[in-house]
Amino acid sequence: MKHNRLGKSGIVVSDICMGTMTFGTMADEKTAHAILDRCFDAGIDFYDTAENYPVPPDPSYAGRTEEIIGRWLKTKNRDAIIIATKVSGPSHGWLKAATRAGMTALDAHNITRAVEASLRKLQTDYIDLYQTHWPDHGTPYEPMLEALDDLVQSGKVRILGCSNETTWGLTKSVNLAERYGLARYETIQNNFSMNNRRFEDELAQVCRQEKVSLIPYSPLGGGVLSGKYLDGQWPAGARFSSYQQAGPRQAAMVRRFVNEKSLASTARFKAIAEAAGMSLVTMATAWSKQHDFVASTIVGVTKLEQLPDILAASDLTLSADVMKQIDQVTREILYPMG
Q1: Is 184 a domain residue?
Q2: Higher pLDDT, 252 or 120
């Protein structure tokens, strides 16, 4: 499996990262550990989680995912594994966190409490990559960056990253870190897939110029690019099948990910993949990895049988012709997810 550097840091990771947001809800601990073992045996050394997981977020089980990973981590050589987790962003914004009674913020108090709790649950004395889960554009960035820098200086965290950040936020944070001599964001974790290529509009240029690595999540477009929602199907147990009745925010996600344009592009991508002799899942995963600003693509499964098509992309480079065909679909069905 190919390995890439995270930003300007000394950390090098496999170009596939296992995401764990469903461990503890859609996947129980036994299944989660089996998935993690299979990934480790396949050469994946990079694993991503968050204090707010599993999803959908709920105060009654927030943090369960880190606990599951912590127990698995004890069965492995800690030095052989790169662990990424996240501190919840502000609960007064677009999402209310399931942690700290929904009173989260990106200040020194919350960041300190969050990292200490994550270290306990993960049963480790350091976190390789610590990320802000979502930003707070209503407060100054300097105090947050200073609090995060303290974690690096103390050895509790090796490097920093952000998630769901904007072009303005990433540029501002990198510039402030440079100005004040603070640890900077080496990575950004944003949504990026064949159905959602907005990252290429502006953020990709920031990543190239500032040497920040994208570690994209949802390369399968929330599972849509597996093809399972085509032809009017709503499979039992699938995320967006259950989200239809889970509240207004989840219903809005369904409309964004599963709509006429996203299904139309998915059907065309499926035809391209089949003509090239691979599954749509394999093609979507390989496509995500095949960008100069991407260091590692975050995948996620809830069953062992979902892994083979993903792992088939580990050493795959899509041909120039396949990439050209994918680009043509993008031009004809622009921004399927809005």
Answers
A1: yes
A2: 120
Within-domain flag for 195: no
DSSP 27: B
User: pLDDT tens digits for 242-251?
Assistant: 888 777 888 8
Strand partners, 187: 161, 213
Beta strands in 80-201 (DSSP E): 82-87, 127-132, 157-163, 185-189
Render 204-244 in DSSP notation, one character per residue: HHHHHHHT-EE--B-TTTTTGGGTTTGGG---TT-HHHHHT
The domain that contains 160 carries what CATH number? 3.20.20.100
* Residue 112 burial (10 A CB sphere; 0-12, 13-18, 19+): middle
- Active-site residue list: 53
Distances (CA, A) of 251 to 57, 224, 239, 246: 15, 15, 11, 7
pTM of the complete model beyond 0.85:
yes
- Residue 295 in this model has a pLDDT that exceeds 90: yes
Q: What are phi and psi of 12, to 5 degrees?
A: -120, 135
Contact 72, 41 (CB under 8 A): no
Instruction: Give the count of domains, the chain.
Output: 1
- β-pairing verdict for 157-163 and 3-5: unpaired
In a domain, 8, yes or no: yes
Q: Is residue 333 included in any domain, yes or no?
A: no
Angle between helices 320-332 and 280-289 (to 10 degrees): 100
pLDDT at residue number 250: 84
The DSSP letter of residue 57 is: P
Q: Give the domain range for residue 13.
A: 3-189
Of the pLDDT bands very low, low, confident and very high (cuts 50, 70, 90), residue 11 is very high
